[in-house]
Design brief:
It contains 2 helices and 4 strands, in the order E-H-E-E-H-E. It has a two-stranded antiparallel ribbon with strand order 1-4. The chain has a two-stranded antiparallel sheet with strand order 2-3. The chain is of the alpha+beta class. The protein binds iron/sulfur cluster (SF4) (2 copies).
Length: 70
């Protein structure tokens, strides 16, 4: 199954739990800051391996990740 995610950058608090949760390494840190002073993570779909498993969204304490499946 192919999937993708959308990250609400204003809600992200840079805890990186989603990075640890994603076995496919589809989420990476970023250097940009949001308006609250955190650097939100990014979806990195270069490998195109997101399965839409939703582990990242389940782990996120800020409910900042939405998961879509194709
Ligand atoms: S839905 Fe699954 S595969 Fe896709 S980014 Fe989240 S944890 Fe990784
Ligand atoms: S788990 Fe949520 S709050 Fe933590 S880095 Fe990922 S998107 Fe941001």
């Amino acid at each position: 199954m192919k999937g993708y995610i959308k990250i609400n950058k204003e809600n992200c608090k840079e805890c990186h739990l989603c990075i640890y949760a994603c076995k496919k390494e589809q989420i990476i840190p970023s250097k940009e800051f949001n308006s609250k002073g955190y650097r939100p993570v990014c979806f990195d779909d270069k490998k195109g391996e997101c399965t839409g498993c939703a582990l990242c969204a389940i782990m996120c304490p800020e409910i900042a990740i939405e998961v879509y499946r194709e």
